[in-house]
Amino acid sequence: MRSSLLGRSAGELAALLLAASSCLVPGSAAITFTPTPSANLDLSQLGRVALAGDFDSISLFEFVGQNENSFNTNGSQSLLQQYPNGAFATLSTADGYIHGLCPYVLQNGTLAGVVVGGNFTSLGGVEAQGIALWNPDSGAITPLPGLSGQVASVYCDANSSTVYVGGSFTGANSSNAIAWTTEWTNLPFAGFNGPVTSITKAPNGNIVFGGQFDGLGNATSPKQRDMQVIPVTSANISASPSSGQPGFTDPKNIICKTGDQDGSGNTWLLADNVPGFWQAAFQFGFVPTKLRLYNTKEQGRGTKTWRFTALPINGIMRFTYIDPQGQNKTCDAQCPLPQNNETFQDFHFVNAVGMNEFRIDISAWYGQGGGLAGIELFEDDIYSYAINNFNEPKCDGVSPGTASATVTGPWDVTPSGKSTSEYLSTTLLGSNIRSDSASVVFTPNIRQSGNYSVQIYTPGCIQDNTCTNRGRVNITGQMGSPTGTMTKGAAQPYSTQISQTNNFDKYDQIYLGYIDMTSDTFKPTVTLTPSSGQVGPLTIVAQRVRFELITSSGGLNGLFEFNPNQATIDTDFSKSAIDTAGTGLSGNAMVNALATNGQSLYVGGNFSTSDFDNIFSVGTGDPASLPGGGLNAEVNFLYQNGSLVYVGGSFNNTRDGTVGGLNGVAVYDTSAKTWRALGSGVNGSVTNIVPLQVNNEPTIAISGFFDQVLRMGNAPSFAADGIALWDPARENWVNNLNISSIAIEGALSAMTEVPGFQPLYAGSVSSSASAAHDAVELTQNNGLSLQQLPINVQDTQADDSTITKRDLTLVKRAAGNSTNTGSGAATGLMYDQNGFNITAIGGHFTATAGNGSQINNLLIINGSTQSVTGISSGIDQNSTFLALGAAGSILYAGGTITGNVNGDNVTGLVLYDLGAEDFSTTQPPELQGASVSVNAIAPQPNSQDVYVGGSFTSGGSFNCPSLCIWDSARAQWNNPGSGIGGEVQTMAWVDNNQLLIGGNLTVNGTSHPLTIYDAKNDDFTAVPETDSLPGSVTALCSAASDGKSYWVAGTAKNGSSYIEKFDGSKWTPVPQLGEGSVVKGIQIFMLTQDHGDSAYFDNNQALLVLGQLVVPNFGNASAALFDGSKFTPFLLSNVAGGGPGTIAQVIVQNPGNFFKSGGGHLAVGFVVLIGLAISLVLIFLLVVAGIVAERVRRRREGYTRAPTQPFFDRGNMSRVPPAELLQSLGRGDRL
């Protein structure tokens, strides 16, 4: 039987489907990722280059669409594909979860698209209720309308060109299961009486449905019909023309009244001898099943005939009723009411029609005119509304007012808009919203105990413009009475979370099971509150909850095998081994996952038997237990890969406790019939397992509710924000391996191969090309790339104070009492003079070196040995290093540091001897001040003086506010001269004697953000026109090699960031970065290719800006390049949790070469060949020149032909005696 398609014909949908599939060509380019223009930085003269900051993942900006956006935590997910660099690109975003993907391949091999199913109401901005078709060639979305609810599983069967869909929904004449070909097609059964969570094909080719159901079937009507009273009291009542008689004119007189109360104040009378109407308009929708009217007897009047018109559809309704003679009758346009009726007359609606308004038109009357003495309206649907006026009133014995809602918190009534009714909404503020901030308790009137499906309705966010503020809510409920039939003891409450990010109206099934009826001692309840831990502003809404009584044919329990070749269903389920396996499970079994391998079907969920728990296999015979009797807690997900079945859930061992380490995730080897652990698992439950590629190698992504991967052998546990990567070839977590890897946070919920196209993923992730932490190397081999340094930063672990990875792991800590920087790296230095080859990283972190020793806040990488060490103990752990410098064999490290070294207190600055690998035996006297901070260190070229700038008043007892000079030869502090005050933030030598100083400064009592110190003359000179700068200077660099022009960046007095250039006479600002930008560093770079003309610098230069930036027309970036006209993102980074990262400093091996260009570069092989060719040419030319010169000489001297006979002259033989000649060989004479 074909379904009606709810407003769109099957032909229209077939045409849309044909159009969607006609453009799909397997192997075509599909969704393409557009590369961004190369940054063209010339690093050839700089040696090694690195970047330091506070980040846990980082990428070069290489493709259009890359960003620093964090993953959604409000419940919305997206379709994803991987960029060529491995990071994930968002293709299309849904307003809810995406649960299933499959390629819809027709029997002729044509790819019609990818079916996307989930709990969403829109995908890519297109309204789509739970399911849609995605075009992998264009990215277009084609909705498949006709379902109402959520889709949990989709299975595409290419053999029959059929898509099987399961979930919690209604469509056509089916519930929870349906099929799509070119239109919605009812299966030979009416779906299931509970939700479907998984669908797969059995080894014999049949389709297997898994879920929580106990039979085929649909919802049913309650035994006691028409028991829910529609609150006419809440409607807006009007009537015309009324009689005008006192006490009989108000049309509201008949609400909550019966015929026994006929009379003044209880009766409405129509004007004399004219037709008229009585009308009720509601703020919510309903489907009435019965109308009850009380006719009036007042003054001999009464209504004789009438009709009922449903609004806004303007349809005259048809009724059945029993006349006074007891005969069943029908009526529509002229329905009768008996005269002088002593009681009510009931009229049952023939058709179920939704409405929010109705009108009763009186066409004939008794006596002088018509009238009514009472009206009541009933429905079968059981609803409880958040707005209490919409719940049943307490009027008479029929309407006790049992249904109600109780609210706490600042709720407001919101107009219905396009929704079915008005609803409550509230917007909560704060950085950590509590669940008790607001609540709505729904209390229904359950007249009949039984199995119910409970659904909560959520209005869409577009109509009230709250999409950016919507989030998650927690739903709790109590469905059983302690003394009721639900359980022998007290019924357990249930709890779940749902997302409210839907663009359009939706409902979620929140409970399926038995509910005890309402009584004097028990009332079922559903409570809605905000989920804890969310960040405001957070808008939550509450509208209504529906309780739907369900029934079925029975005979099933969570599993059903369907033969698509049979037109009718054989209800003898014992013929199916799969159905029989289900009936053998514990009552109300929940099947969450299905997978096939060979001739076996693997079933996972929440169930038990005497032989196994939560997972088993079934073939053609009886179900078989897996080793250990299955698993000891619920299984959520199965993923089959060859002979391995990956299992995710809430377990930690087998049922019999014989296989440890199965915390949340496990692998079952179907060949060896053994369980294997993935390390020691994770510290929570696993909900999804998805394959993906990392470095072109197969990897398994484990997603779920966990934040830590547990210790594996010698590898300690590490932080994982809901997702971790497992390398199946190396049988280890990627985080534990010495390989480069993408960084990913969030969750992947689904994946499918798409014939002829890239794999398609679903989820909510934040990802980067590199999982580097806080420091990364920038290289220029065949283009710019990022390489990990032998360090790794992780969040602090609950059970491990230190974590080791590769040579070293850093553990970020809170900033303590440092307000200058947060966690992570704040500064760095490369030093290759005096025989050293070191890279130093400073900041605020704890680290563990490969030898197990602890490193606090400052680490040193020896480039020669690749070893990683730290400074000795003595510096307090809550210190933060903000500045580094080196001269001779001494590393100068400054910041907000305190400690005791060699028995002497140190504050602000400490000296470390690189040769001795220990603190210098001589330490400077403590810097003094209210809050000492060293922000900049600048050793003077060709001098033994080291300049130290920051916030302090003196060095020891030597007065030197803001700037002190450490004389390393005399081991004493010196004063650079009077006149400077405030706080130094940054310094740089522009030549051997000129020190450029920036900060929040005063020079000779006048505020200046920038000044120059002349070391030869010991005086300070303010840079011209600095009073035009909008605020303090926090970063600076030279604009040219002559040191006469500068770039500066800082914070304006209004809190915004600024960047300006001084050309020697005037300042020129650059276009402003976006609001919220924080600039940490700036540096001029040479380019390998010229850009357009610019007034700021030469065409082969660009300005690199570092920090936490907001790039106009783009968004967040950690580094951007300014080419004289615009900012272009260069580096994107994130911190753990998905927030934007920060890059604080660029570190280079040869800082004096920033203005040297390497020009264009050929490959080494070409250079060698060209050199060889030039050498050969030069040799050839030399030989030719020699020959020519010899010929010329001979011509000048005359040419005599050599004799043809050999000439031998013995005359000289006697001049040296032979004995003397031979004797001289042994003398050993030397010149």
UniProtKB/TrEMBL annotation:
Gene Ontology CC annotations of this record? plasma membrane of growing cell tip
Checking Gene3D superfamilies in the record gives: Kelch-type beta propeller (2.120.10.80)
Which key words are in the record?
Membrane, Signal, Transmembrane, Transmembrane helix
Signal peptide interval: 1-30
Q: What is the lineage of its organism?
A: Eukaryota, Fungi, Dikarya, Ascomycota, Pezizomycotina
Q: Where is the Rax2-like second domain?
A: 226-372
For the Rax2-like C-terminal domain, which residue ranges apply? 909-1156
Q: This chain belongs to which protein, by name?
A: Cellular morphogenesis protein
The Rax2-like third domain is annotated at 383-550
Membrane-crossing segments per the record: 1162-1189
Read off the Pfam families from this record. Answer: Rax2, Rax2_2, Rax2_3
* InterPro entries listed in its UniProt record: Gal_Oxase/kelch_b-propeller, Kelch-typ_b-propeller, Rax2-like_C, Rax2-like_second, Rax2-like_third
Superkingdom of this protein's organism: Eukaryota
